[in-house]
Specification:
The complex is a heterodimer.
Chain A (H helix, E strand, L loop, with lengths): L5 E4 L8 H12 L5 E4 L8 H4 L3 H10 L3 E5 L7 H10 L6 E3 L14 E3 L8 H10 L1 E5 L6 H14 L2 E8 L2 E4 L4 H5 L18 E5 L4 E6 L2 E4 L2 E3 L4 H7 L3 E4 L6 H12 L6 H8 L5 E2 L1 H4 L12
Parallel strand pairs in A: 1-2, 1-13, 2-3, 3-4, 4-5, 5-6, 6-7, 7-13, 12-14
Antiparallel strand pairs in A: 7-12, 8-11, 9-10, 10-11
Helix pairs in contact in A: 1-3, 5-6, 9-10
Chain B lengths: L2 E5 L3 H9 L4 E4 L17 H13 L3 E6 L8 H14 L3 E4 L2 H10 L5 E3 L8 H11 L3 E3 L6 H10 L3 E8 L11 H6 L3 H4 L8 E6 L2 E6 L2 E7 L14 E4 L5 E4 L7 E3 L4 H6 L4 E4 L6 H19 L18 E2 L9
Parallel strand pairs in B: 1-2, 1-14, 2-3, 3-4, 4-5, 5-6, 6-7, 7-14, 13-15
Antiparallel strand pairs in B: 7-13, 8-9, 9-10, 11-12
Helix pairs in contact in B: 1-2, 1-10, 2-3
The chains are: A alpha/beta, B alpha/beta.
Amino acid sequence: MAVRMDLTVGPIAFFWDAERVREFYRGLAKAPVARVVIGEWVCSKRLPFWRHEIPDAIAALQQAGKEVALSTLALITLVRERKDTAELLDMGLPVEVNDLSALYHIPEGTPFQVGPMVNVYNEGTLQWLAQRGATRISLPPELPLASVAALAEAGRKAGVAVEVWGHGRVPLAISGRCYHARLHGRSKDSCQFVCGDDPDGRDVDTLDGQKFLTVNGVQTLGRTVTTAARQIGELEAAGVASLRLSPHIGDFAGVARAWAQALAGDREALLPALDRLLPDAIFSDGFLAGRAGASMGEAVA
Amino acid sequence: MMELVCPAGTPTALRAAVEAGAHTVYCGFADESNARNFPGLNFSRAELAEAAAFAHARGAHVYVAINTFPRAGAQQIWHRAIADAETCGADAVILADLGLLAYAAERHPKLRRHLSVQAAAANPDAINLYASAFGVKRVVLPRVLSVQEITAINREIDVETEVFVFGGLCVMAEGRCSLSSYATGLSPNMNGVCSPASHVDYRDQGDTQEARLGGFLIHKTPKGGVSPYPTLCKGHFVSPDHKGNAIDGHLFEDPVSLDATELIPQLQKAGVKALKIEGRQRSRAYVAQVVRAFRAAVEALEADQPMPAGLLRQLTEGQAATTGAYRKTWR
């Protein structure tokens, strides 16, 4: 019989001020999620503004019985960023690798986790990572269900928990160039932290007004809220261990509660509940369905 | 002399490249195992064996790109590609996937392994990891680094570096981009295609021509004018801010292509071993022209002469070229 899935909350993608971060993790401590990945994921320049919130957030989450892991950056280039990555390991918590170069700092055999920004597309890669010490892998969001099922099976054999993108604007690309800064005619080094104006990212629409993408500093996300709401049964049957919820502004704890209720059995209520919680959201599940990621298939009968 | 690594999508393009002075030609098999999986392009096994013999007889090398990420449940397609590349006489395989690198290192230890740009190894730690874990001998650097960053990387690694100097320009970290599959369902990583022609639609609307990808409007151009190919990250979009003011333009990158010819001397000083030209989808005539120009450039460098500038302007996409991230303008 399939084991019930649980919920993992990924790192905050956007540039939130310290107060918003504090409020978010305070609320999350009470939410029905099993684990939380925390850390700056997108741009190292943001970290000094909220780094001091991390110890208290970790303490509150752990006190509430949640597992906590620390995320690396998704694109590590500067010497300072490499040093920060090496130092993450000294904090004594599991590290979620989101740039493969972080593995260079993790001694072989030390357990680690793998985030959705690392390319795990097949059994061979999963097995190599497992041998290296991976205990948990959050799969790239573009994978279709058939690949997810094959990887969940490989994960079961290798003792690796497999996690799938469950909810949130999905990361599509990362660059050496900051697009928020470029919008304002600035370079990355002189960005003046304009991404802080857009706590849920900045919309990128087509010339004929279609909602398309979201810019978040050096990261580009989808404009839709990618959801696994209609694939819960298939993911559970495939042996997927957990679904990842990606932080957004609004009633995120409410979103987590709706998901927890769906995983406990009330699946039909999930999409209507999400619609109520996020009235402006456009949902998509094309990636899992093996179609264009931005698309939402017909309702399953 | 710096090594010129030139593209070939067909056996005739390969012969043209070798005859025009390519030190090395890279190509792929006609299936999803390589990142230029376009209809009518790439090599059968017999064609590759013949091409390798042709190149070797003229002192040139052949690298085989097997640089997509194998599909779960179908890894044997990629495993067979590695075995066949070795049998056909490839001088190296260009790989991106961790599992495939591990497989090649274990099963084909004598076959030289290069790290594809699709692996996005953008710092010395990543490169040293691939070198120590899989015996990678060369890394193709992502097009998101400046010359200064490349210089610094070369100080900390023992493997050779190869960089793109001409052709298409990815502005996102390569091998880590699913913009294409978000709009079309097909991606470089899984399918070996980006912004695929099968999902492009051109439509006339009054005086303008619209180019769509997967139904999304990528740009509008005046009817009769030049309409660049609708590559997603080179599109014309609109971004409204929270106050309702909108900025419109090429928000990620203009429809430009890469031309780093003038930076070749700096790249050599940065310790770069090989220069790579993008364009396996290009015609034989294009390949021959570009290869001749670049051979002249590396010969000039060797003879301490200035770089011939602007030689290839007319060949670049949309008539505009950029030095990309190499000049550090992004930072």
